[in-house]
Design goal:
heterodimer; A: 326 residues; mainly alpha; MetI-like fold; B: 536 residues; alpha/beta; Rossmann fold; 2 domains; six-stranded mixed β-sheet; 23 helices; 39% helix; globular
């Protein structure tokens, strides 16, 4: 019955294709920045590798072995060419294939992020709704105060507080989140609980506040008054009439926080000795292991861009004007 | 007298310390329609919502009672009480476009309350909604409800909201200015649809409006309100035939005298020839539009929304350069683009907008607003500047003490006067008035029109007056241009344009203007040759 989108409106697939293409351009730009950034990092990998034995001759021979004497532009093209085909080269420090080393760590990081998201997103949306419904009351103010304090704590501090309470005072949970191949999923979850909680504390406040504001905004709309005058129960007004119209801002802030969960876990992984991307990155920054830093940077950027594209697409889909053009 | 449905006694509602509704009492019998009439701030909507047991945020019911079938609907504002009330009283808002949830299909919203109160099975509710869509003259009643709100026009949404209000077979419907936001040509259709539906279903209604001519077509009785107090109440015929209170007399006798035609023979100030214009990449909004504005006279541009009236104003001011066609001002060619015109040209063409709230900088005082063009165009400073501001305020009949006020401290009519003064400050040859009175209450609008006419006589300014209201045209215009879909369908001197033989569009426009007498709607519909039927 409905006509196809008129001029100016893109179909969803065309829009997705365009966003993905733009994402690729962005990713290429990021690769330039990463490469340039790693070039101006202080320190030299050859000296760092050799340590005490860094005689000029030894340094020169290692530089040649790693191809460092070539001009930067040549190295960039080689690196990018490899990265596009999934080949990130070999680590300087331990000569291992970086793509192979990243795979299990990326899996671990994504698992941790997913676990944190599975707790944090429903929790913060529920808290946001609770706050919006009781706006101005003591419930609203208590939730606001607690979550705000939680964001204000730096993660390393929150992490150590959790360790102090759960691992040192009560011995309930392990302080180190070392996971290995042989562990069952259940065991993994127990071990990962503390880093996961640390992440949840860091993101809940932001998402909850956005949910609250978006809902309160919608609740002042005339159509909410219409629903009220229909004598509908409060729960139906919130779920049927307010939430669908608040989806867009909420999805955007959720995506931003998901990206943070994946990308921002660096500190948390180090605190809890969790074998993920963050720890891998930090270890190799210390060793001036440039290819690893570049590879992890690029993977983080790709995840960030993908999540943002997903958020944009979900807000478009949630808008009936775009789903059902005139 | 029939059975009393709604009984309101000494109702008092306050916002903080301000009294919004001041001891209002009335009764409404089953199946009757009571019109609540008054200007903005008279407390009409507040009374209407109180009849649904609802008060908006910030308002408190501080006294009185409202009973529906003998049950107090105000005292315990419990969820249960509101639930009971909502089953028997429903609401039609001024802007159905805002009152429908954009995220859901119309049909689901129309039957929602009926299902929520478990009054019908889903299939019965759907069938009733569809038959109501038909009753209200909506296109394709069986499938109309599948649309989302943004897929229906303003007039259609207003009817759909009436269908929503009727769906649960309520005893009382509160109509809150249901046609105010519509064009006259759409208004008459929606009005006819609403009247038809209330008569057919025998539902009682509170019909709220600031437009007495509209209320008179629907209501059995009228209650006149002002500043939250009752002024007068009586049957429609009595109110029109023998109003008692002075305020009611003013409202009823609000008929503007016809403007006497200017002597004529004046030279052409603005010549618009063959203008075709549109927005980026879009279709042409204006198509080969030509007319002349004579010095010292008023040209009225008439048409319903979407006919290109406001776009025309943008083209003449240079905000939207035309695609083709030329503009001539005082015999000299006018550059299409605003940015390439010189200061004297800018000075010579001024504009007064529809909504003064948006046209005035809320952070500037009246003095700052009026000083700007005086300083910019004439380089006035110091005491000369202040003296001129005070002269301007005098010209627009406002006390010079107002110079220190901010726009937020002024009434709607005062703000529009400031906008006129600001245009006047540039001493322009032409003022474009874009629906300057359509956001104002009738008596206030009347004052603004009087002011504009007086200023024209004194200063010889020409007006290009954009309006959708033909009743205004008679009292202000010398010549008229009728527009439809971006084209000029009729133009010429006022007497010729507004006299038969008409083209069908001009005739429809003229017949759609509500007349200040009961029974006009029936006559107008009969005049269309199809009594009782509705325009789709």
């Amino acid at each position: 019955m409905l006509a196809a989108p008129k001029g100016g409106g893109l179909s969803l697939w065309a829009m997705l294709a365009r966003r993905l293409a733009l994402g690729l351009v962005l990713l290429w730009a990021v690769s330039l920045v990463i490469f340039a950034g790693t070039q101006i990092l202080p320190g030299d990998v050859a000296s760092a590798m050799l340590g005490q034995q860094a005689t000029p001759a030894a340094v020169a021979s290692i530089r040649q072995e790693l191809g460092l004497e070539q001009p930067a532009a040549v190295r960039y093209v080689k690196w990018l060419g490899g990265a596009v085909t999934g080949d990130f080269g070999r680590s300087y420090s331990n000569r291992q294939d970086i793509a192979k080393s990243i795979a299990p760590r990326l899996k671990n990081t994504l698992l941790l992020a997913a676990m944190a998201a599975a707790i944090a997103i429903p929790l913060s949306i529920a808290l946001g709704i609770a706050c919006a419904l009781t706006a101005g009351s003591w419930i609203d103010r208590t939730i606001g105060l607690v979550t705000l304090s939680a964001i204000s704590l730096p993660e390393f501090f929150a992490g150590y507080l959790l360790i102090a309470y759960f691992s040192v005072m009560h011995l309930w949970l392990p302080s180190s989140a070392t996971v290995s191949e042989g562990m069952s999923l259940g065991q993994r979850f127990v071990v990962m609980l503390l880093p996961c909680l640390t992440l949840v504390l860091a993101v809940v406040g932001h998402m909850m506040r956005m949910t609250r504001v978006a809902l309160l905004n919608v609740m002042t709309s005339p159509y909410i008054e219409t629903a009220l005058l229909k004598g509908l129960p409060r729960s139906r007004i919130v779920w049927k009439h307010a939430l669908p119209n608040a989806v867009s801002p909420i999805v955007n802030v959720v995506a931003l926080n998901l990206a943070y969960l994946v990308v921002g876990v660096v500190v948390v992984e180090v605190i809890f000795v969790y074998p993920g991307m963050g720890q891998y990155l930090v270890d190799h920054v210390a060793k001036r292991d440039v290819p690893v830093v570049q590879a992890t940077g690029l993977v983080f950027a790709a995840i960030y861009i993908l999540l943002n594209i997903a958020a944009d697409m979900i807000s478009v889909i949630a808008n009936p004007r775009l789903r059902h053009p005139r | 007298m029939g059975d009393v449905l709604l009984k309101v006694t000494d109702l008092e509602i306050k916002a903080g310390a301000t009294t919004i509704v001041d001891r209002v009492s009335f009764t409404l019998d089953k199946g009757r329609v009571l019109g609540l009439i008054g200007e903005s701030g008279a407390g009409k909507s507040t009374i209407g919502l109180a009849s649904l047991g609802h008060t908006r945020e910030g308002l408190r019911i501080t006294g009185g009672r409202a009973e529906l079938n003998g049950r107090d609907i105000l005292a315990p504002a419990s969820a249960k009480a509101r639930y009971l009330t909502s089953a028997s009283v429903t609401y039609v808002a001024q802007s159905a476009a805002a009152a429908f949830n954009p995220a859901h299909r119309l049909i689901d919203q129309v039957i929602e309350a009926t299902l929520g109160h478990k009054l019908m099975r889903r299939s019965e509710a759907l069938a009733r909604a569809k038959s109501l869509f038909g009753l209200l003259g909506l296109p394709d009643p069986a499938h109309f409800g599948d649309r989302y709100p943004h897929q229906a026009s303003g007039g259609q949404l207003q009817r759909a909201m009436t269908a929503m209000a009727l769906c649960s077979s309520p005893e009382l419907i509160v109509f809150d200015e249901p046609t105010t936001a519509l064009d006259v040509t759409t208004q008459i259709d929606v009005l006819a649809a609403i009247k038809h539906a209330i008569v057919k279903t025998g539902t009682a209604a509170l019909y709220i409006s600031h437009d007495l001519a509209v209320v008179a077509q629907v209501a059995d009785e009228i209650l006149v309100l002002r500043h939250g107090r009752m002024v007068e109440r009586g049957p429609v015929e009595r109110i029109f035939a023998a109003p008692v209170e002075v305020y009611t007399k003013h409202l009823v006798s609000l008929r503007r005298s016809e403007k006497l035609l200017t002597a004529g023979g004046g030279n052409v100030l603005l010549r618009v020839s063959g203008i075709t214009a549109g927005y980026a990449k879009g279709v042409d909004v204006l198509n080969d539009v030509s007319f002349d504005v004579v010095r010292g006279e008023t040209l009225a541009v008439v048409g319903e929304s979407g006919s290109g009236k406001s776009t025309l104003a943008r083209v003449i001011t240079g905000l939207l350069p035309a695609r083709s066609g030329t503009l001539q001002f005082e015999g000299k060619s006018l550059d299409p683009s605003l940015t390439r015109r010189d200061a004297p040209t800018h000075r010579n063409i001024q504009i007064v907008n529809q909504i003064p709230d948006l046209a005035l900088n809320p952070r500037q005082t009246v003095e700052a607003i009026l000083s700007r063009p005086l300083a910019f165009y004439f380089g006035l400073k110091g005491s000369a500047l202040r003296a001129h501001v005070s002269t301007l305020l005098d010209q627009i009949e406002l006390p010079s003490a107002l110079a220190d006020r901010y726009p937020a401290e002024l009434s709607g009519g005062q703000k529009q006067r400031i906008c006129i003064a600001r245009a006047l400050a540039a001493d322009p040859g032409l003022i474009i008035c874009d629906e300057p009175t359509s956001a104002l209450d009738p008596l206030v609008a009347d004052g603004i029109l009087d002011l504009l006419m007086r200023l024209q006589k004194e200063a010889g300014t020409s007006y290009l007056f954009i309006t959708h209201d033909l009743s205004i045209v008679r009292s202000i215009a010398d010549s008229v241009v009728v527009m439809l879909g971006g084209k000029v369908v009729r133009s010429g001197g006022k007497t010729e344009v507004l006299a038969p033989p008409f083209d069908s569009y001009t005739e429809k426009l003229i017949a759609s203007v509500p007349e200040m007498r009961p029974g006009w709607l029936d006559d107008a519909l009969a005049g269309r040759g199809r009594p009782g039927t509705l325009e789709r």
